[in-house]
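Hello,

Our lab assistant flagged a job as stuck in the queue for most of the afternoon. It eventually completed. Since we weren't sure the result was trustworthy after the delay, we are filing this so someone can double-check. Below is the sequence as submitted and the structure that was eventually returned. Let us know if re-running is recommended.
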Amino acid sequence: RFANTKVGISKDRGADTDANLRTSSAAPATAAAPAAAPAAAAAASAFAVGFAAELDLAIPGLGEVATKAKVLHFPNSPEYVKQVLAWIAEHELAELEELAEVVENVTGFAGMPELPSKRFLRE
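-- returned structure --
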């Protein structure tokens, strides 16, 4: 944020006042930029809650498992959820215990990368 900012003290005034500081920047900062990160995080969190609710509708408790496994906060999360739900529907799973027996098949079908798959298996 401050990489392109130069701060100097004016030589014709005393160095002990704030008025002596002058700044110049190659690119002016905008007020909206700092607020964008929290807004994006809030949106991602809202989507994760929605994904967890969808998973819970299919199998009670699955949303909590996916949340603990941290697989609902990534750009590909909507696709993972879609594929997991499709697999569950196709194989008519109804309980977490059933899913636990075939979870490697489900994560493979969903196309989850290795680390999210491991976290999902662990939970």
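-- support follow-up --
The delay was a queue issue, not a problem with the job. The result is valid. Residues 32-58 form the longest helix (27 residues). Strands lie at 5-9, 21-25.
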